[in-house]
Hints:
By secondary structure, the chain is of the alpha+beta class. It has helices at residues 4-9, 54-75, 116-129; strands spanning 17-20, 24-28, 38-42, 79-83, 94-99.
Amino acid sequence: MATIFTKIINGDIPSYKIAENDQYYAFLDINPAAKGHTLVVPKLEVDYIFDLPPDVLGGLLQFAQPIARALDAAFRPVRTGIIVEGLEVPHAHVHLIPMYPDRKGFSLGKKESFTAEEMQAIAAAIRQKL
Length: 130
Ligand code: AMP
């Protein structure tokens, strides 16, 4: 059965899309740990990130780089962090999470809440910097 991320990539489930090419898809995390929390996913459906073919694994980080830069430019965090967890959704992905001065770090367990309109505005602000 297709993972929820494959359903998002295929457009069967909506997402706040940030960027896409033939191999990767990026969108806002629906339960963000911080404003701009973005997931970057290979279209290839593989559960464990370190089972990805080496070129797809390397390309994932290359696809994520300009998105992290766009997060930096859009929201001016201290910097954007990157986390790989993968305990919830069995489809390899990285979390890009801006870290703001009012927080010492970030935790995937700590969620922030934004309205749908705010999420749309956040996604648009990131896309505008790409
Ligand atoms: P993990 O697999 O532990 O790295 O976490 C999966 C992440 O996917 C969590 O941060 C969820 O909030 C996020 N997530 C799950 N479903 C969706 C969805 N439909 N749209 C956006 N993000 C999602």
